[in-house]
Here is the input.
Amino acid sequence: MRQKKKDYSWFMLEDMDLSQKQERVIIPAGVRAVGNRAFGAKAYYVKSVVIPYGTVYIGESAFLDCFNLKHVTMPDTLVYIGSFAFGRCRSLENIKIPKGLKSIEDSTFYHCPRLKVIDIPRDVVRIGNLAFLECASLEEVVVQNSDLRCIGVEAFKDCTSLKRIVVENFKNIESYLYYSYEGAITIGSRAFAGCTNLEEVVLDSRSINIGIGAFNGCYSLKKLVIRSEFVNIMINAFYECSNLKTIVTGKYTKIDRKNLPEGVRISRKA
Here is the structure.
């Protein structure tokens, strides 16, 4: 009797026959979705995962607590990566977000302490709450284009090695942080709190909302550049930013000083 071909359209690690200490997993072609909590206790020794072209979905907590996982290859066909998908992957070093992704969900990469580089593609409009919380080795974030509209609550909180964010296709490509959107951008409460090595922030948008304590405790922040028609700064947004001395704004930028640190100078440029 002919054996029925196994259906890999929804993948769980238990669907594969692994050797006891297999370090590399190649998910079979034809898989459309990696299920919620797909990689469990059997994935303890897994260091590398290759997800095939055609996969569109990675479920919630799919790789949660895969402590030895270092590298994941993801196809550009992916359109959704669930919350906590790579949470507490303590060995994960770098990740390239697929081009088709619109949102980085809440806590997707939270507490990945060895993650150094993250490449955010042009179509991402939202970085969720706690998305990169406590990624203590994160040094660089690449934002390719102006679609980003929201950086969630505590999205990059306690990323203590974060030094710069490189943005392509803009005038000031050397800026450490440069976001632009024709409508508005919101930076959530405590989004960058505790990023003690962040030195320069450049924001470019028609309207900018900076949440409560957004940059709280960013002791190294020295220069803030805002190019916007309207800026709303909430209370304690720059609390304990003791080295912030100058805010450079556009010629017509409207900015209320009441929630700015005492002694900060505003310099207007055309």
Q: What stands out?
A: The longest strand covers residues 200-204.
